[in-house]
Design brief:
single chain, mainly alpha, 72% helix
């Protein structure tokens, strides 16, 4: 299959893919093909769209199991209603360390507020 035909095929199939990971892989392949054929603007557009879709797709597929043990301890305590200062004291860490862990915890499952923590765990 020549590059223009491959690009047309991947473009057509990409929109029909349901699995977010497979769709992201197809977008990456399409972007590479576009770069290979000298179409950097089109490649950038494909990649930007894929990245824009990724957080929404990941929010439903990412699981708290991907948390590190330290993040999980902090998340459990925060979900139980403890303040950052209380968590820091209980774990013998600084409040800044708790903030860093919580930032990571919020990012991984795609939650925006502390109130969404318990439902995400």
């Amino acid at each position: 299959m020549n590059p223009p035909a491959a690009i047309a095929h991947i473009s057509q199939v990409h929109g029909q893919l349901v699995d977010p990971q497979v769709r992201a892989q197809a977008a990456a392949m399409l972007g590479r093909m576009l770069l290979f054929t000298g179409q950097p603007q089109e490649a950038a557009t494909v990649v930007q769209r894929a990245l824009a879709d990724l957080p929404a797709e990941r929010a439903g597929t990412r699981r708290p199991a991907s948390l590190t043990p330290s993040e999980r301890r902090v998340a459990d305590m925060a979900a139980a209603g403890k303040s950052n200062r209380d968590i820091a004291r209980a774990l013998y860490v600084t409040p800044k360390t708790v903030e860093v862990h919580l930032t990571s915890v919020y990012r991984k499952p795609g939650i925006r507020r502390r109130s969404g923590l318990s439902s995400a765990l």
